């Protein structure tokens, strides 16, 4: 299963605040409501998110977005893969900078 960076960010945000409104979540992520709704439905279809409706509750909390066990596992896996990618990019940039500095010294 492949998640994109937007989906990973959604999983991260809803794991921190499962009862956040779609409007607030979209705002924090820089998404339109339509894009967020589309992504949430896709995550639900993949079995990564459970959406609970509390509209009939007198506290009017609306929805809660909960990561499923599969969602927690996938979020962790994607986060580790992302960190490995960033560490590789850092090492490549560090090597490139070192080569450039050595060339400059030789001139």
Task: Describe this protein's structure.
The protein is mainly α. The chain has a single domain (about 5-105), classed as Orthogonal Bundle (Arc Repressor Mutant, subunit A), CATH 1.10.10.10. It is about 65% helix and about 10% strand. It is built from four helices and two strands; from the N terminus they run αααββα. The chain has helices at about 5-15, 20-30, 35-45, 70-105; strands spanning about 50-55, 65. The chain has a two-stranded antiparallel sheet with strand order 1-2. It starts with a helix and ends with a helix. The mean pLDDT is about 85.
Q: Concise description?
A:
The protein is mainly alpha-helical and 107 residues long. Helix content is 66%, strand content 9%. The longest helix has 38 residues, at 69-106.
* Unreliable residue runs: none
CATH architecture: Orthogonal Bundle
Helix run count: 4
What is the fourth-level CATH superfamily?
Winged helix-like DNA-binding domain superfamily/Winged helix DNA-binding domain
| Mean residue pLDDT | 85
| Number of domain modules | 1
CATH class: Mainly Alpha
Q: Cα distance, first to last residue?
A: 50 Å
Beta-sheet strand percentage? 5-15%
Strand order of the largest sheet: 1-2
Major sheet description: 2 strands, antiparallel
Rg over alpha carbons: 20 Å
* Overall 3D form: elongated
Write down how many β-strands occur, each being a DSSP E stretch of 2 or more residues. 2
Helix content: 55-70%
CATH fold category name: Arc Repressor Mutant, subunit A
What is the H/E string?
A: HHHEEH
